[in-house]
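Table S4 entry, short-chain 2-methylacyl-CoA dehydrogenase.
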Amino acid sequence: MIFSTVASKVPRRVTNTRQCNRLLAQLRRPSSRQTTRSMVVMTRRQASAIMLKQPNPISTSLPKTYTAAAQRNHSSFATFTEDENAIRETARLWAQTSLLPKVRSMDDDAKLDPDIVQELFDYGFMGMEISEEHGGADMSFTMACIVVEEIARVDPSVAILVDIHNTLTNNAVRFWGSDELKNKWLPRLATDCASSFCLSEASSGTDAFSMQSRATKIEESGGYVINGTKLWISNAKEAGVFLVFANLDPSKGYKGISAFMIDANAPGIEVGKPEHKLGLKASSTCPVTFEDVHVDAADLLGEEGLGYKYCINILNEGRIGIAAQQVGIAKGCMDIALPYINER
């Protein structure tokens, strides 16, 4: 997670992909490790200079006349801070130079390239709002959505991973996790451990709170045993941890639902065969079965019986991330369509 300052190293214009790759290597491995906050000091002008002469440049998102009017009348929606513009250009640069060449092969193979997943961590895209204390970027929710948008502009399959990881799992742990849970999982979530959000089941899709998954408390140890099957779980193949919702007390209905952080390597977990989807093929969508999976008491998220509240609140954030993804997809379509219109 190393967007360190490289202002003195950034050329005014990078005229080929090889130069871009060299610059990204400098961004990724600086001579002296600095905080993630400092890496965004690469200004918009510097990042734009990098993209200026690329073979397939990204078109500007809005006409200048529209932008000017928006700044006058709707500044809160149309303008961004210097840091936000810098992180946008950095994400855009990475997506164009590192991600784009691998999009077709990942789609054909129906799986994410492990090197791409690792680069997401290396560049800090997987710990956007996690504090520096826990190894994260300590940035804003807006910045996280900007990164999701720019990655979706090139490959929405990768954007799904970034979105769910940042807006759902990371934030759930940040908002409601105990200090022990935060110290255990946030450093890993920021640096090397992808995550999945396990809510949906065969009998509880739109009515998620009618779930059949059960959590049984072990009175002697204070831990829990989880049983149940979750369906349509995004990123299941890549996940190192699952945020799982299960009912601890069915007699209370949805008020018995609790949430748990469960290591993907725990005995009793089986990730099934990925679904064959019409699109987003590189993103794994799988059933996940939990059979007598033991969970430590410390891996309970928040309080017993409040899982439904956590779910409702965190999904509100996740939906904004999905909206950012859709904006990115639309812009990506325009990036392809507009040059073709001018050429035909």
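Confidence is low (pLDDT under 50) at residues 1-16, 29-75.
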